[in-house]
Design goal:
The chain has 6 helices and 5 strands, in the order βαβαβαβαβαα. With 164 residues, it is of the alpha/beta class. The protein has one domain (4-163): HUPs (Rossmann fold), CATH 3.40.50. Strands 1-2-3 form a 3-stranded parallel beta sheet. Helix 4 (98-114) links the parallel strand 4 (90-95) and strand 5. The N and C termini lie far apart (48 Å).
């Protein structure tokens, strides 16, 4: 039976930390569904459609990931409902630091209460990418800094279009 995993997040924008999690996930599941949140309670730099385009360009053009193993979608529902839609019982979450763990632990518990067939798998990015966050990437480029070590060339291009 094919194993699908849902990797939910804002991906505003995608970073090498996210990409590390995707690479690691592809070692343990058949398909990773990158689920880009489109809820109205956040203030996004990029629209949902732009974030889908940015993620696809970063993964498939810049990094040459195989399209048959990754699906990129947007969603405005509970992650557990998304799991049902894509026949997945796995939610992937990336951890950067201990400070992430408390929130992620609570989120995993709530998802488990909503559907006790769902398991949350925590994956850490590589050490050199653990400090990267989308928020910091946006702040650095807004202040004229170099973000080449934090995200892909095409993502940098999209960011420069917003900030420069």
């Amino acid at each position: 039976m094919k194993k699908n995993a849902i990797y939910p997040g804002t991906f505003d924008p995608i970073t090498y930390g996210h990409i590390d999690v995707i690479k690691k996930a592809l070692k343990i599941v058949d398909t990773v569904i990158i689920a880009i949140s489109d809820t109205s309670n956040k203030d996004y730099l990029f629209s949902s459609d732009e974030r889908i385009e940015i993620v696809k360009t970063a993964l498939f053009s810049d990094l040459k990931f195989k399209k048959n193993r990754i699906k990129v979608v947007s969603f405005r529902t509970l992650t557990t409902n998304l799991c049902k839609k894509y026949k997945s019982n796995i939610i992937l979450r990336g951890l950067r630091a201990v400070s992430d763990f408390e929130y992620e632990f609570q989120l995993a518990g709530m998802n488990r209460k909503l559907n006790n067939n769902i398991e949350t798998i925590f994956l850490m990015s590589n050490v050199e990418n653990q400090i990267i966050s989308s928020k910091f990437v946006k702040e650095i480029i807004a202040l004229g800094g170099d973000i080449n070590k934090f995200t892909t060339k095409s993502t940098i291009k999209y960011l420069k279009e917003k900030y420069v």
